[in-house]
Protein 1
Amino acid sequence: MRFPGWIVFLLLVGQAFAAEPRLLSVQRIGDAAPHNAFTDLVRWRDRWWCVFREGQGHVSPDGAIRVLTSADGTEWTSAARLTSPQGDLRDPHATVTPDGRLMLYGAVALPQPGPVKHRSLVWFSDTGTNWTAEQTVGDPDVWLWRVTWNGPTALGVGYDTGGERFVRLYSTRDGKAFETLAPTLYAEPNPNESGLAFLPDGTCLCLLRRDGQPGTGKLGRARPPYRDWTWQDLGVRIGGPQLLRLPDGRLVAAVRLYDGGARTALCWLDAEAGKLTEFLKLPSGGDCSYPGLVWHEGVLWVSYYSSHEGRTMVYLALVQMP
């Protein structure tokens, strides 16, 4: 891939300060709806794909999934807009399946009162523009939050939306059939959102959000077959977590931090010590975070949303890493 000239210039400037991560650029890419939020980002077929929710508000019955695409990360166009007859589509995520398809997944919030509050849904595409019909996966009221592939198999964590009393671990080989590996992966009060990453020896790390009190995040670790987990307390509140292992083995966590004001932050994760260290605050504030992370040609690409400019909108940040 060839970067645009302005990105090449910023990369050269960034190399002069390679001792510390540096923010190269921030671009607003999603602002068509009154509320644009909850992002993910993937690189597929030599293009960028960013997915997020559009709606009237943070919680509103009209939630739809917007799919944007770009050849260079600068000019973005709409590839698709997905809705559901069941209700409000929420928090989309995207991944590439082992057979090379683009997989989109999220949840639908069903009209209430009713026996079920949420169902998890998946869609697939060979083009990014035409998508299969929605398919229900997982268990009622267990929101499948994050699916991460490790070779031919993916793990996914879902959280209980009936009372947020537990998270559940699933595995899948096709993105359609999800087997329960751990019915109760973590059961202290109010666990929910998560980010997953695999180490070279197959160890899976789970960065887990908790709400309530004390509401500090947790770091889980397990070896195959991923049924026996150990947990460390991170000592800090986090929101909208995502986790990425860089080619040199370092772990980057993208989270919402709350101390000193809500913000979208990039952090180093020390998995042995169970410690997050913030290294960069992205331009953000208020209603924000829920990032996507992609490492591409020496640059960290980050999608996220924020309301620091008034309306809640989606942004793309490029970060030069040391």
Note: The chain has one domain: 5-186+273-320.
Protein 2
Amino acid sequence: MVRDDEFGRGTEVLYGRVGEQRRLDELVTEAIAGRGGAVLVRGEAGIGKTALLDWLADSASERGMRLVRVRGIEHEADLAFAGLLQLVWPFQRRVAKLPEAQADALRSVLGRGKDRGADRFLTGLAVLTLLADVAEDGPLLCLVDDAQWVDQASAEALLFAVRRLGAERIAIVLAGRDGVVEDGSAFAGLTELRLSRLGHEDSARLLRDRGHSAAVRSRVIAESLATRWP
């Protein structure tokens, strides 16, 4: 098992991300102790957000946390509750344990109940109650990648839960692109963890360990530093 010599948990070597790893590890530690929380990881496309979530999934699993992952899909961004369906699906057997009105709201999300129109408050409350019930069996980590493509209805329901985690053993980490997840989005106001580009030394280490020659490393780094990503 390969480990970063600067940070002890997780199977993925991440260069130049020790501070970010430490911040997310603290979030998990707090959740395990019964102080739920959430953070939005932001950065340019391709900067390593998914790699950081992968590392966190491994690290949290080693610490005994349950895990559920959601990924925003661009061509489903206009489909109400497409994202929430991914979150609820693994726990669908627990829906019947919820108060009747909340259970009905999630059955609609699952396509198993009457469509009575979206009640944002009720759906958000149902998500919170469901996740809290799951966390009764052990701390829970929810990872949401490509948050910029999560449909608005799912984002609102999830954010309702995020803002009320309180004493729950739940950590929620969302990752989204700069320039897409902005002030007008449903995720505005969340605590943020911004990823910057790797410095020269970390970039060189990464390329070296990928088997690239010194000449290729120098050229790639020079081009990267000269490029201003959208």
Note: The two ends are 36 Å apart (CA to CA).
Protein 3
Amino acid sequence: MYTLARILLLLPLFVASSAQALRAEGIEFFHGTWEEALALAQTEDKLIFVDAYTTWCGPCKRMAATVFTQSEVGNFFNEHFVCMKIDMEKEPGLNFQKKYPVRAYPTLYFIDGEGKAVHKGQGALPVKKLLDLGEKVLRKVDKSADYAKAYEAGDRDPQLVLSYVKALIRAGKPSGMVANEYLNAQKDLNTDFNLRFLLAATVEADTRIFDKLLAHREGAVAVSSAAEVDEVIRKACQKTVGKAIEYDSPELVDEAKDKMNRHLPTEAGAFAYRADMDYARSSKDAGRYLKACRGYVKKVVKSNAAELHTVAQDLHRSFGSESAALNQAEKYAKQAAENGGLAEYYATYASILLDNEKKSEALAMAQKSLDLAKGDPRQEAVANQLIRKIERAG
């Protein structure tokens, strides 16, 4: 455990780290010592996410270049974890391995503020699987039952209620009833604590809590930052789109798009395209998806290779049996491969070409993927397997 004096000594470093995280497009990795990371994790009630890597590891480089840099990964990991990259062939990595064994690269550790390993995974993960892993780990450390016991016994200490709401949200459990009960009992929502409570409790855009936050936006910015308030708005609107998909409610998609347009207008266009794509994918509406996808690439993605690759993969997986969608996926995959030059991009391009009955072109692109994958055993295996599949195809 850390004394109050120790935490106060480290506080300027913590604040600087938090501010940097808000500005980051992807994961903002903490650059302090391991002891400072443990103290920060305790202070912010977070786990530490450790990317245990080496400089020569191909999958490590790929994750660093194409996964950790993604905004959705940064938004999630910066909010929920203290993130560190540690080179396992240098200090402090050599010392780190004495307590936390590393046998493959990358190894992904999740460690609590007391130094206890909560989860350990091995191997590079794509964006969605890394986000799924992060959510799984958060559910694994659910502390809401501890707060629920005190709350149900009548304890309404504001800090306890706030901690309870945060724990419910981290665990993916409904928090609105507890948050609303507290907020409805307050005569003044403009106190620093209540404004921070609003920021913490705002989960979805289609709620009274969201509307209350926006009614007190100026005060919320004053106790945090414009970037933090914008991020809360952004995530709440995204959550409402997820709810629209879960309950098959296009009206909620429209509400989320409308609230983004009113409260984050500079991002509303890109958000609307993504929301339409997500909803169309869930409802298996190829026409709507393709229309939104084309607008998204033209207006937002442009020549970004990583994003083009993701769009091509989504099109292929979701609507690969539709000729128009497959042709569009082929076009985006080609642009991603030529712009990005990564083995996995060429593998995706080859796979789409094969499904589009272009066997000779598919084989050439799979061979290029294999050439680029040298030194990366996993990607080499993917390319070789793809080549065999193409050669067996009629």
Note: The CA atoms of residues 312 and 328 lie 8 Å apart.
